[in-house]
Amino acid sequence: MISIQCPKVASNREMNIEEALEIVESAIEQGHLNRVQEIVFRQSWEGKSYTEIARSSGYEAGYVRDAGCRLWQVLSRAFGKKVTKNNLHGVLKKEIDAVAHATQTYCSYAPEWQQAQQPVAQLMSMEATTGQYQDWADAVDVSIFYNRTAELATLQQWVVKERCRLVTIFGMGGIGKTALVVKLAQQVQDNFQYLIWRSLRNTPLLKDLIAELIQFHFQGQHINLADTASGRILQLMTHLRSSRCLLILDNVESILQSGNHIGCYQAGYEDYGQLFRCMAETPHSSCLMLTSREKPRSLTAKEGEKLPVRSLRLAGLDVIACREIFRARGEFLASESEWSILIQHYAGNPLVLKMVAPVIQDFFDCSISKFLLFIKQNTFIFGDIRYLFDQQFNRLANLEKELLYFLAVKQNPVPFSELIANFAPTLCRTDVIVTLASLQQRSLIEKVDDGFTLLLVVKRYFINKMIEEDRTETISQEIDCFNEKSLNKLI
Ligand SMILES: Nc1ncnc2c1ncn2[C@@H]1O[C@H](COP(=O)(O)OP(=O)(O)OP(=O)(O)O)[C@@H](O)[C@H]1O
Ligand SMILES: [Mg+2]
Asked: Which superfamily does 149-313 belong to?
Protein backbone atom coordinates (compact mmCIF):
# COMPACT_ATOMS: atom_id res chain seq x y z
CA MET A 1 0.00 0.00 0.00
CA ILE A 2 1.19 3.49 -0.72
CA SER A 3 0.21 6.74 0.84
CA ILE A 4 -0.07 10.15 -0.69
CA GLN A 5 1.26 13.18 1.09
CA CYS A 6 -1.18 16.00 0.70
CA PRO A 7 0.56 19.30 -0.05
CA LYS A 8 -1.35 22.29 1.18
CA VAL A 9 -3.32 23.04 -1.94
CA ALA A 10 -6.69 24.66 -1.54
CA SER A 11 -8.84 22.52 -3.84
CA ASN A 12 -10.49 25.57 -5.41
CA ARG A 13 -7.30 26.92 -6.95
CA GLU A 14 -5.03 25.61 -9.72
CA MET A 15 -2.33 23.24 -8.51
CA ASN A 16 1.16 24.29 -9.54
CA ILE A 17 3.80 22.01 -11.03
CA GLU A 18 5.83 21.68 -7.80
CA GLU A 19 2.75 20.56 -5.88
CA ALA A 20 1.87 18.13 -8.67
CA LEU A 21 5.39 16.71 -8.60
CA GLU A 22 5.22 16.33 -4.82
CA ILE A 23 2.02 14.28 -5.10
CA VAL A 24 3.49 12.10 -7.84
CA GLU A 25 6.76 11.44 -6.03
CA SER A 26 4.99 10.54 -2.83
CA ALA A 27 2.76 8.09 -4.72
CA ILE A 28 5.30 6.16 -6.83
CA GLU A 29 7.23 3.23 -5.48
CA GLN A 30 10.70 4.52 -6.33
CA GLY A 31 9.95 7.79 -4.50
CA HIS A 32 11.27 10.12 -7.22
CA LEU A 33 11.22 10.56 -10.98
CA ASN A 34 14.44 10.12 -12.95
CA ARG A 35 15.78 13.04 -14.99
CA VAL A 36 14.00 12.35 -18.27
CA GLN A 37 10.77 11.40 -16.49
CA GLU A 38 10.83 14.69 -14.63
CA ILE A 39 11.38 16.65 -17.86
CA VAL A 40 8.51 14.82 -19.55
CA PHE A 41 6.28 15.30 -16.51
CA ARG A 42 7.01 19.01 -16.12
CA GLN A 43 6.57 19.86 -19.79
CA SER A 44 3.51 17.64 -20.25
CA TRP A 45 1.99 19.46 -17.31
CA GLU A 46 2.47 22.68 -19.27
CA GLY A 47 0.73 21.12 -22.27
CA LYS A 48 3.83 20.58 -24.42
CA SER A 49 3.81 17.86 -27.08
CA TYR A 50 6.49 15.17 -27.19
CA THR A 51 8.04 16.91 -30.19
CA GLU A 52 8.31 20.17 -28.30
CA ILE A 53 9.74 18.38 -25.25
CA ALA A 54 12.31 16.68 -27.47
CA ARG A 55 13.22 19.98 -29.09
CA SER A 56 13.73 21.86 -25.82
CA SER A 57 15.48 19.02 -23.95
CA GLY A 58 17.76 17.82 -26.73
CA TYR A 59 16.56 14.18 -26.44
CA GLU A 60 15.38 12.21 -29.50
CA ALA A 61 11.60 12.50 -30.02
CA GLY A 62 11.20 8.68 -29.98
CA TYR A 63 13.12 8.44 -26.72
CA VAL A 64 10.95 11.12 -25.11
CA ARG A 65 7.78 9.40 -26.29
CA ASP A 66 8.93 6.03 -24.88
CA ALA A 67 9.90 7.65 -21.59
CA GLY A 68 6.45 9.30 -21.53
CA CYS A 69 4.67 5.99 -22.14
CA ARG A 70 6.60 4.34 -19.32
CA LEU A 71 5.94 7.28 -17.02
CA TRP A 72 2.17 7.12 -17.59
CA GLN A 73 2.31 3.38 -16.83
CA VAL A 74 4.14 4.02 -13.55
CA LEU A 75 1.61 6.70 -12.60
CA SER A 76 -1.34 4.53 -13.64
CA ARG A 77 -0.07 1.79 -11.31
CA ALA A 78 0.48 4.27 -8.49
CA PHE A 79 -2.92 5.92 -8.74
CA GLY A 80 -4.85 2.77 -9.63
CA LYS A 81 -6.37 4.32 -12.76
CA LYS A 82 -5.28 5.09 -16.29
CA VAL A 83 -3.08 8.18 -16.37
CA THR A 84 -2.24 9.73 -19.73
CA LYS A 85 -0.74 12.95 -21.01
CA ASN A 86 -4.30 14.16 -21.58
CA ASN A 87 -5.81 13.53 -18.18
CA LEU A 88 -2.81 14.34 -15.99
CA HIS A 89 -4.27 17.54 -14.54
CA GLY A 90 -7.65 15.93 -13.98
CA VAL A 91 -6.27 12.87 -12.19
CA LEU A 92 -4.01 14.83 -9.86
CA LYS A 93 -6.69 17.40 -9.08
CA LYS A 94 -9.04 14.61 -8.10
CA GLU A 95 -6.35 12.91 -6.08
CA ILE A 96 -5.72 16.09 -4.11
CA ASP A 97 -9.45 16.72 -3.65
CA ALA A 98 -9.92 13.18 -2.39
CA VAL A 99 -6.98 13.48 -0.01
CA ALA A 100 -8.21 16.87 1.24
CA HIS A 101 -11.70 15.49 1.73
CA ALA A 102 -10.44 12.37 3.48
CA THR A 103 -8.12 14.36 5.72
CA GLN A 104 -10.95 16.63 6.86
CA THR A 105 -13.32 13.77 7.71
CA TYR A 106 -10.54 11.61 9.09
CA CYS A 107 -9.23 14.32 11.40
CA SER A 108 -12.31 14.13 13.51
CA TYR A 109 -11.64 10.63 14.77
CA ALA A 110 -8.31 9.22 13.57
CA PRO A 111 -5.06 9.54 15.45
CA GLU A 112 -2.50 11.74 13.76
CA TRP A 113 -0.25 8.88 12.60
CA GLN A 114 -3.08 7.27 10.68
CA GLN A 115 -3.85 10.43 8.78
CA ALA A 116 -0.62 10.17 6.83
CA GLN A 117 -1.29 6.50 6.06
CA GLN A 118 -4.63 6.91 4.26
CA PRO A 119 -4.32 4.31 1.50
CA VAL A 120 -4.97 5.24 -2.10
CA ALA A 121 -7.48 2.42 -2.59
CA GLN A 122 -9.58 3.76 0.29
CA LEU A 123 -9.37 7.29 -1.05
CA MET A 124 -10.36 6.12 -4.50
CA SER A 125 -13.45 4.36 -3.28
CA MET A 126 -14.74 7.81 -2.34
CA GLU A 127 -14.55 8.88 -5.89
CA ALA A 128 -18.01 7.69 -6.69
CA THR A 129 -19.37 10.46 -4.50
CA THR A 130 -16.65 13.08 -4.79
CA GLY A 131 -15.35 12.74 -8.31
CA GLN A 132 -15.37 10.86 -11.56
CA TYR A 133 -13.99 7.77 -13.21
CA GLN A 134 -12.28 8.25 -16.52
CA ASP A 135 -10.79 5.91 -19.08
CA TRP A 136 -9.28 7.70 -22.06
CA ALA A 137 -7.85 4.47 -23.53
CA ASP A 138 -5.70 5.52 -26.51
CA ALA A 139 -7.22 8.97 -27.08
CA VAL A 140 -4.73 11.21 -28.89
CA ASP A 141 -2.68 14.06 -27.50
CA VAL A 142 -4.20 17.45 -28.31
CA SER A 143 -1.68 19.73 -26.64
CA ILE A 144 -1.22 21.36 -30.07
CA PHE A 145 -4.69 22.37 -31.16
CA TYR A 146 -5.74 25.46 -33.07
CA ASN A 147 -9.03 27.28 -33.25
CA ARG A 148 -12.30 25.29 -33.61
CA THR A 149 -13.77 27.79 -31.17
CA ALA A 150 -17.16 27.86 -32.89
CA GLU A 151 -17.40 24.06 -33.15
CA LEU A 152 -16.39 23.61 -29.50
CA ALA A 153 -18.99 26.18 -28.39
CA THR A 154 -21.73 24.43 -30.38
CA LEU A 155 -20.81 21.02 -29.02
CA GLN A 156 -20.59 22.31 -25.44
CA GLN A 157 -24.04 23.80 -25.84
CA TRP A 158 -25.44 20.50 -27.12
CA VAL A 159 -23.69 18.22 -24.65
CA VAL A 160 -23.71 20.25 -21.44
CA LYS A 161 -26.53 22.81 -21.67
CA GLU A 162 -29.04 20.93 -23.79
CA ARG A 163 -27.97 17.50 -22.53
CA CYS A 164 -28.19 15.85 -25.94
CA ARG A 165 -28.16 12.08 -25.77
CA LEU A 166 -26.34 11.29 -29.00
CA VAL A 167 -24.01 13.53 -30.99
CA THR A 168 -22.22 12.45 -34.17
CA ILE A 169 -19.27 14.30 -35.65
CA PHE A 170 -18.62 13.31 -39.21
CA GLY A 171 -16.31 14.48 -41.94
CA MET A 172 -13.61 13.34 -44.32
CA GLY A 173 -10.50 11.49 -43.18
CA GLY A 174 -7.97 13.68 -41.37
CA ILE A 175 -10.26 16.68 -41.03
CA GLY A 176 -9.85 16.70 -37.22
CA LYS A 177 -12.83 14.79 -35.76
CA THR A 178 -10.87 12.85 -33.17
CA ALA A 179 -8.80 15.85 -32.07
CA LEU A 180 -11.95 17.96 -31.71
CA VAL A 181 -13.73 15.39 -29.57
CA VAL A 182 -10.71 14.89 -27.29
CA LYS A 183 -10.57 18.66 -26.81
CA LEU A 184 -14.28 18.81 -26.11
CA ALA A 185 -14.13 15.89 -23.68
CA GLN A 186 -11.33 17.64 -21.78
CA GLN A 187 -13.47 20.77 -21.53
CA VAL A 188 -16.68 19.07 -20.39
CA GLN A 189 -15.28 16.23 -18.30
CA ASP A 190 -16.30 17.80 -14.98
CA ASN A 191 -19.95 17.55 -15.96
CA PHE A 192 -19.81 13.76 -16.04
CA GLN A 193 -19.32 11.11 -13.38
CA TYR A 194 -17.91 8.65 -15.88
CA LEU A 195 -15.99 9.31 -19.05
CA ILE A 196 -14.97 6.48 -21.30
CA TRP A 197 -13.26 6.61 -24.69
CA ARG A 198 -13.09 3.70 -27.10
CA SER A 199 -11.99 3.40 -30.73
CA LEU A 200 -13.92 1.02 -32.96
CA ARG A 201 -10.94 0.81 -35.36
CA ASN A 202 -10.37 -2.86 -34.49
CA THR A 203 -14.09 -3.60 -34.90
CA PRO A 204 -14.89 -4.95 -31.43
CA LEU A 205 -18.10 -6.95 -31.20
CA LEU A 206 -20.75 -4.96 -29.37
CA LYS A 207 -21.14 -7.69 -26.73
CA ASP A 208 -17.46 -7.41 -25.81
CA LEU A 209 -17.44 -3.63 -25.88
CA ILE A 210 -20.44 -3.43 -23.53
CA ALA A 211 -18.86 -5.99 -21.20
CA GLU A 212 -15.86 -3.64 -20.91
CA LEU A 213 -18.07 -0.61 -20.33
CA ILE A 214 -20.10 -2.30 -17.62
CA GLN A 215 -16.99 -3.69 -15.97
CA PHE A 216 -15.53 -0.19 -15.98
CA HIS A 217 -18.71 1.20 -14.47
CA PHE A 218 -18.49 -1.27 -11.59
CA GLN A 219 -14.75 -0.82 -11.18
CA GLY A 220 -13.79 -4.48 -10.97
CA GLN A 221 -16.79 -5.81 -8.99
CA HIS A 222 -18.17 -9.12 -10.21
CA ILE A 223 -21.15 -8.59 -12.57
CA ASN A 224 -23.39 -11.22 -14.14
CA LEU A 225 -23.45 -10.18 -17.76
CA ALA A 226 -26.36 -11.12 -20.03
CA ASP A 227 -25.49 -13.62 -22.79
CA THR A 228 -26.87 -11.63 -25.70
CA ALA A 229 -25.95 -8.22 -27.07
CA SER A 230 -29.57 -7.05 -26.58
CA GLY A 231 -29.49 -8.13 -22.94
CA ARG A 232 -26.21 -6.30 -22.42
CA ILE A 233 -27.58 -3.15 -24.08
CA LEU A 234 -30.39 -3.17 -21.50
CA GLN A 235 -27.89 -3.66 -18.67
CA LEU A 236 -25.77 -0.80 -19.99
CA MET A 237 -28.80 1.46 -20.32
CA THR A 238 -29.60 0.92 -16.64
CA HIS A 239 -26.21 2.37 -15.74
CA LEU A 240 -26.46 5.18 -18.23
CA ARG A 241 -29.74 6.16 -16.61
CA SER A 242 -28.44 6.10 -13.04
CA SER A 243 -25.19 8.04 -13.66
CA ARG A 244 -24.20 10.82 -16.00
CA CYS A 245 -21.67 9.22 -18.36
CA LEU A 246 -19.90 10.53 -21.41
CA LEU A 247 -19.27 7.63 -23.74
CA ILE A 248 -17.18 8.37 -26.84
CA LEU A 249 -16.87 5.93 -29.72
CA ASP A 250 -14.25 6.98 -32.27
CA ASN A 251 -13.84 5.65 -35.86
CA VAL A 252 -17.40 4.39 -36.18
CA GLU A 253 -16.94 3.97 -39.96
CA SER A 254 -14.96 0.80 -39.14
CA ILE A 255 -18.18 -1.06 -38.36
CA LEU A 256 -19.99 0.23 -41.46
CA GLN A 257 -20.11 -1.56 -44.80
CA SER A 258 -17.98 -0.55 -47.74
CA GLY A 259 -18.93 -0.89 -51.42
CA ASN A 260 -22.44 0.21 -50.65
CA HIS A 261 -24.21 3.51 -50.19
CA ILE A 262 -23.23 5.18 -46.96
CA GLY A 263 -24.22 4.14 -43.47
CA CYS A 264 -25.17 0.43 -43.43
CA TYR A 265 -23.72 -1.72 -40.66
CA GLN A 266 -21.35 -4.56 -41.54
CA ALA A 267 -22.73 -8.07 -41.08
CA GLY A 268 -22.39 -9.00 -37.41
CA TYR A 269 -22.39 -5.35 -36.29
CA GLU A 270 -26.06 -4.48 -36.77
CA ASP A 271 -26.56 -4.54 -33.00
CA TYR A 272 -24.59 -1.27 -32.77
CA GLY A 273 -27.62 0.23 -34.52
CA GLN A 274 -29.75 -1.04 -31.65
CA LEU A 275 -27.43 0.59 -29.11
CA PHE A 276 -27.47 3.90 -30.99
CA ARG A 277 -31.28 3.70 -31.22
CA CYS A 278 -31.62 3.12 -27.46
CA MET A 279 -29.23 5.99 -26.72
CA ALA A 280 -31.20 8.28 -29.04
CA GLU A 281 -34.75 7.31 -28.15
CA THR A 282 -34.94 6.26 -24.51
CA PRO A 283 -34.64 8.69 -21.61
CA HIS A 284 -31.30 8.64 -19.74
CA SER A 285 -28.87 11.14 -18.31
CA SER A 286 -25.78 10.26 -20.35
CA CYS A 287 -24.33 11.25 -23.69
CA LEU A 288 -22.93 9.11 -26.48
CA MET A 289 -20.57 10.87 -28.90
CA LEU A 290 -19.58 9.26 -32.17
CA THR A 291 -16.93 10.25 -34.68
CA SER A 292 -17.07 8.81 -38.16
CA ARG A 293 -16.00 9.42 -41.74
CA GLU A 294 -19.48 8.20 -42.67
CA LYS A 295 -22.69 8.81 -40.81
CA PRO A 296 -24.61 5.68 -39.74
CA ARG A 297 -27.77 5.78 -41.81
CA SER A 298 -30.23 5.04 -39.00
CA LEU A 299 -29.33 8.26 -37.16
CA THR A 300 -30.31 10.87 -39.74
CA ALA A 301 -34.05 10.43 -39.21
CA LYS A 302 -33.71 10.91 -35.45
CA GLU A 303 -31.87 14.22 -35.62
CA GLY A 304 -33.26 17.69 -35.22
CA GLU A 305 -32.51 21.14 -33.82
CA LYS A 306 -35.02 20.60 -31.05
CA LEU A 307 -34.29 16.91 -30.57
CA PRO A 308 -31.66 15.32 -28.31
CA VAL A 309 -29.88 13.79 -31.30
CA ARG A 310 -27.58 16.03 -33.33
CA SER A 311 -24.78 15.81 -35.80
CA LEU A 312 -22.00 18.14 -36.83
CA ARG A 313 -20.37 17.92 -40.21
CA LEU A 314 -16.80 19.02 -39.66
CA ALA A 315 -15.23 21.24 -42.30
CA GLY A 316 -11.57 22.15 -42.64
CA LEU A 317 -9.61 24.56 -40.46
CA ASP A 318 -9.51 28.26 -41.28
CA VAL A 319 -6.46 29.90 -42.85
CA ILE A 320 -5.03 31.18 -39.56
CA ALA A 321 -5.18 27.75 -37.92
CA CYS A 322 -3.69 26.11 -41.02
CA ARG A 323 -0.84 28.57 -41.05
CA GLU A 324 -0.15 27.67 -37.41
CA ILE A 325 0.22 24.04 -38.48
CA PHE A 326 2.93 25.12 -40.91
CA ARG A 327 4.51 27.49 -38.39
CA ALA A 328 4.92 24.58 -35.97
CA ARG A 329 7.25 22.99 -38.56
CA GLY A 330 9.26 26.10 -39.39
CA GLU A 331 9.33 29.17 -41.62
CA PHE A 332 7.59 29.08 -45.02
CA LEU A 333 7.64 31.74 -47.72
CA ALA A 334 4.27 32.78 -49.13
CA SER A 335 2.11 35.77 -49.85
CA GLU A 336 -1.35 36.04 -48.26
CA SER A 337 -3.00 34.89 -51.47
CA GLU A 338 -0.65 31.92 -51.86
CA TRP A 339 -1.53 30.77 -48.37
CA SER A 340 -5.23 30.98 -49.24
CA ILE A 341 -4.79 29.05 -52.50
CA LEU A 342 -2.79 26.31 -50.81
CA ILE A 343 -5.20 25.92 -47.95
CA GLN A 344 -8.26 26.03 -50.17
CA HIS A 345 -6.69 23.43 -52.43
CA TYR A 346 -6.39 21.03 -49.51
CA ALA A 347 -9.74 22.05 -48.01
CA GLY A 348 -8.12 23.08 -44.72
CA ASN A 349 -7.60 19.41 -43.91
CA PRO A 350 -5.03 19.41 -41.08
CA LEU A 351 -3.78 15.89 -41.73
CA VAL A 352 -3.24 16.57 -45.42
CA LEU A 353 -1.51 19.87 -44.64
CA LYS A 354 0.73 18.10 -42.15
CA MET A 355 1.71 15.74 -44.98
CA VAL A 356 2.27 18.56 -47.46
CA ALA A 357 4.37 20.80 -45.17
CA PRO A 358 7.47 18.54 -45.01
CA VAL A 359 7.35 18.04 -48.79
CA ILE A 360 7.43 21.81 -49.29
CA GLN A 361 10.28 22.07 -46.80
CA ASP A 362 12.35 19.27 -48.29
CA PHE A 363 11.76 19.71 -52.03
CA PHE A 364 10.63 23.31 -52.59
CA ASP A 365 12.96 25.26 -50.28
CA CYS A 366 10.01 26.15 -48.02
CA SER A 367 8.53 28.19 -50.87
CA ILE A 368 4.77 27.83 -51.22
CA SER A 369 4.80 29.61 -54.58
CA LYS A 370 7.26 27.06 -56.05
CA PHE A 371 5.06 24.28 -54.72
CA LEU A 372 1.88 25.81 -56.16
CA LEU A 373 3.56 26.13 -59.53
CA PHE A 374 4.57 22.49 -59.37
CA ILE A 375 1.10 21.20 -58.54
CA LYS A 376 -0.36 23.35 -61.27
CA GLN A 377 1.88 21.67 -63.80
CA ASN A 378 1.67 18.12 -62.46
CA THR A 379 -1.28 15.90 -61.69
CA PHE A 380 0.91 14.05 -59.21
CA ILE A 381 -0.52 13.43 -55.71
CA PHE A 382 1.71 12.60 -52.75
CA GLY A 383 1.89 9.07 -51.41
CA ASP A 384 0.44 9.68 -47.96
CA ILE A 385 -2.40 11.85 -49.24
CA ARG A 386 -3.11 9.30 -51.87
CA TYR A 387 -3.29 6.55 -49.26
CA LEU A 388 -5.77 8.63 -47.24
CA PHE A 389 -8.06 9.04 -50.27
CA ASP A 390 -7.55 5.43 -51.41
CA GLN A 391 -9.04 4.36 -48.07
CA GLN A 392 -12.15 6.40 -48.80
CA PHE A 393 -12.27 5.47 -52.48
CA ASN A 394 -12.22 1.75 -51.69
CA ARG A 395 -15.36 2.13 -49.60
CA LEU A 396 -17.44 3.72 -52.36
CA ALA A 397 -20.33 2.08 -54.22
CA ASN A 398 -19.81 1.77 -58.01
CA LEU A 399 -22.42 4.38 -58.78
CA GLU A 400 -20.77 6.80 -56.36
CA LYS A 401 -17.45 6.32 -58.18
CA GLU A 402 -19.07 6.93 -61.58
CA LEU A 403 -20.66 10.12 -60.37
CA LEU A 404 -17.38 11.34 -58.92
CA TYR A 405 -15.53 10.60 -62.17
CA PHE A 406 -18.21 12.54 -64.00
CA LEU A 407 -17.89 15.55 -61.68
CA ALA A 408 -14.09 15.42 -61.56
CA VAL A 409 -13.67 16.45 -65.19
CA LYS A 410 -16.10 19.35 -65.03
CA GLN A 411 -14.56 22.73 -64.57
CA ASN A 412 -17.74 24.27 -63.19
CA PRO A 413 -20.36 23.02 -60.72
CA VAL A 414 -22.85 20.69 -62.41
CA PRO A 415 -26.56 21.47 -61.96
CA PHE A 416 -28.82 18.70 -60.71
CA SER A 417 -30.75 18.74 -63.99
CA GLU A 418 -27.56 17.94 -65.94
CA LEU A 419 -26.74 15.05 -63.63
CA ILE A 420 -30.22 13.64 -64.08
CA ALA A 421 -30.02 14.09 -67.84
CA ASN A 422 -26.69 12.27 -67.91
CA PHE A 423 -27.45 9.39 -65.53
CA ALA A 424 -31.22 9.02 -65.59
CA PRO A 425 -31.51 7.30 -68.98
CA THR A 426 -29.95 4.21 -67.40
CA LEU A 427 -30.74 4.86 -63.75
CA CYS A 428 -33.85 5.94 -61.94
CA ARG A 429 -33.94 9.49 -60.59
CA THR A 430 -34.09 8.21 -57.01
CA ASP A 431 -30.77 6.38 -57.44
CA VAL A 432 -29.10 9.60 -58.54
CA ILE A 433 -30.56 11.51 -55.56
CA VAL A 434 -29.54 8.77 -53.10
CA THR A 435 -26.03 8.70 -54.56
CA LEU A 436 -25.62 12.47 -54.32
CA ALA A 437 -26.83 12.43 -50.71
CA SER A 438 -24.45 9.61 -49.89
CA LEU A 439 -21.49 11.48 -51.40
CA GLN A 440 -22.41 14.63 -49.50
CA GLN A 441 -22.42 12.67 -46.27
CA ARG A 442 -18.99 11.33 -47.09
CA SER A 443 -17.87 14.98 -47.54
CA LEU A 444 -16.59 14.20 -51.05
CA ILE A 445 -18.89 16.56 -52.96
CA GLU A 446 -20.19 19.99 -52.15
CA LYS A 447 -23.48 21.61 -53.03
CA VAL A 448 -22.94 25.16 -54.22
CA ASP A 449 -25.56 27.56 -55.57
CA ASP A 450 -25.38 26.40 -59.15
CA GLY A 451 -24.83 22.70 -58.66
CA PHE A 452 -22.53 20.00 -57.34
CA THR A 453 -18.76 20.05 -57.37
CA LEU A 454 -15.75 18.26 -55.88
CA LEU A 455 -13.27 19.65 -53.40
CA LEU A 456 -10.10 20.50 -55.35
CA VAL A 457 -8.00 17.87 -53.67
CA VAL A 458 -10.66 15.23 -54.36
CA LYS A 459 -10.81 16.39 -57.99
CA ARG A 460 -7.04 16.01 -58.28
CA TYR A 461 -7.24 12.52 -56.78
CA PHE A 462 -9.95 11.40 -59.23
CA ILE A 463 -8.19 12.82 -62.26
CA ASN A 464 -5.10 10.88 -61.20
CA LYS A 465 -7.19 7.75 -60.90
CA MET A 466 -8.65 8.30 -64.36
CA ILE A 467 -5.23 8.71 -65.90
CA GLU A 468 -4.07 5.52 -64.19
CA GLU A 469 -7.14 3.62 -65.25
CA ASP A 470 -6.70 4.89 -68.78
CA ARG A 471 -9.97 6.74 -68.76
CA THR A 472 -8.38 9.66 -70.56
CA GLU A 473 -11.00 9.25 -73.23
CA THR A 474 -13.64 10.46 -70.79
CA ILE A 475 -11.49 13.43 -69.96
CA SER A 476 -10.82 14.23 -73.61
CA GLN A 477 -14.52 14.08 -74.43
CA GLU A 478 -15.00 16.91 -71.99
CA ILE A 479 -12.18 19.02 -73.32
CA ASP A 480 -11.78 19.81 -76.99
CA CYS A 481 -8.29 18.59 -77.30
CA PHE A 482 -6.84 16.52 -74.49
CA ASN A 483 -3.33 17.54 -73.67
CA GLU A 484 -1.30 18.39 -70.58
CA LYS A 485 -2.36 22.01 -70.66
CA SER A 486 -6.07 21.44 -70.82
CA LEU A 487 -5.85 18.86 -68.08
CA ASN A 488 -4.03 21.36 -65.92
CA LYS A 489 -6.93 23.74 -66.26
CA LEU A 490 -9.01 21.27 -64.34
CA ILE A 491 -6.83 21.01 -61.27
N1 LIG B 1 -7.57 22.01 -34.53
C2 LIG B 1 -6.41 21.40 -34.81
N3 LIG B 1 -5.25 22.02 -34.58
C4 LIG B 1 -4.07 21.41 -34.85
N5 LIG B 1 -3.97 20.16 -35.35
C6 LIG B 1 -5.11 19.50 -35.59
C7 LIG B 1 -6.39 20.07 -35.33
N8 LIG B 1 -7.33 19.17 -35.66
C9 LIG B 1 -6.66 18.08 -36.09
N10 LIG B 1 -5.35 18.28 -36.05
C11 LIG B 1 -4.31 17.32 -36.44
O12 LIG B 1 -4.66 16.78 -37.71
C13 LIG B 1 -4.43 15.39 -37.77
C14 LIG B 1 -5.73 14.68 -38.12
O15 LIG B 1 -6.67 14.90 -37.08
P16 LIG B 1 -7.67 13.76 -36.57
O17 LIG B 1 -6.95 12.48 -36.35
O18 LIG B 1 -8.42 14.32 -35.44
O19 LIG B 1 -8.57 13.61 -37.85
P20 LIG B 1 -9.82 12.66 -38.04
O21 LIG B 1 -10.86 13.45 -38.72
O22 LIG B 1 -10.19 12.02 -36.75
O23 LIG B 1 -9.23 11.58 -39.06
P24 LIG B 1 -9.73 10.07 -39.32
O25 LIG B 1 -10.93 10.13 -40.18
O26 LIG B 1 -8.56 9.45 -40.03
O27 LIG B 1 -10.00 9.43 -38.00
C28 LIG B 1 -3.88 14.99 -36.42
O29 LIG B 1 -2.48 14.95 -36.50
C30 LIG B 1 -4.32 16.12 -35.51
O31 LIG B 1 -3.43 16.31 -34.44
MG1 LIG C 1 -10.15 10.09 -36.10
From this structure: P-loop containing nucleotide triphosphate hydrolases (3.40.50.300)
